[in-house]
TrEMBL record:
Keywords: Signal. It comes from the Bacteria. This is DUF4367 domain-containing protein. PROSITE patterns: PROKAR_LIPOPROTEIN. Residues 1-19 form the signal peptide.
Length: 166
């Protein structure tokens, strides 16, 4: 009888813990609903200047690698890779078109206004998720847990929307 109660308690704990996590569907739906917000964000002031562009980098972040067309940014144990193709204009959909050919994404949403074309992509990997946001010839990528995906996307949208080409 004692075993029965222990098993019931363990079962209740497992059910309770599984109900606490967010599902892929919930995250995908939430990101989809907020797509326009990720591109209409008020960008913080530029904090770093480079040969091709100026950009906002959060105070908590540091640039760990830099080349003419990419940056590797570390922020609180999170790595972001920002790639820039200055031959593509802000209305370019080349990165989006490339993403469309892949069939492993959970979410691929586009955004367009009079001045630029953007997209969001969420893809499941073996242990976590790849998040990508792009505007024209710029894309930013990171890996994240599902629970942190929206928070990462918000941070990435601030950074990518701040870019001013020289």
């Amino acid at each position: 009888m004692k075993r029965f109660y222990i098993m019931m308690i363990l079962l209740a704990v497992v059910i309770g813990l599984s109900a606490c996590g967010v599902s892929e569907e919930e995250v995908v739906d939430s990101i989809t609903e907020k797509t326009d917000e990720y591109f209409d964000v008020d960008s913080p002031a530029v904090t770093h200047e480079f040969a091709l562009f100026d950009i906002y980098i959060p105070e908590t972040a540091e640039i760990t690698e830099e080349a003419e067309n990419y940056l590797v940014i570390e922020d609180q144990n999170q790595t972001y890779i920002l790639f820039s193709n200055n031959l593509e204009d802000p209305m370019s959909d080349s990165f989006y078109s490339q993403a469309e050919t892949m069939d492993h994404h959970l979410l691929l949403e586009s955004y367009e206004d009079d001045e630029r074309f953007g997209y969001l992509q969420l893809s499941e990997l073996e242990d976590d998720y790849e998040i990508q946001i792009g505007i024209g010839g710029i894309r930013m990528t990171t890996h994240s847990s599902l629970d942190d995906a929206e928070q990462q996307l918000e941070k990435m949208s601030q950074i990518i929307n701040s870019i001013e080409f020289n």
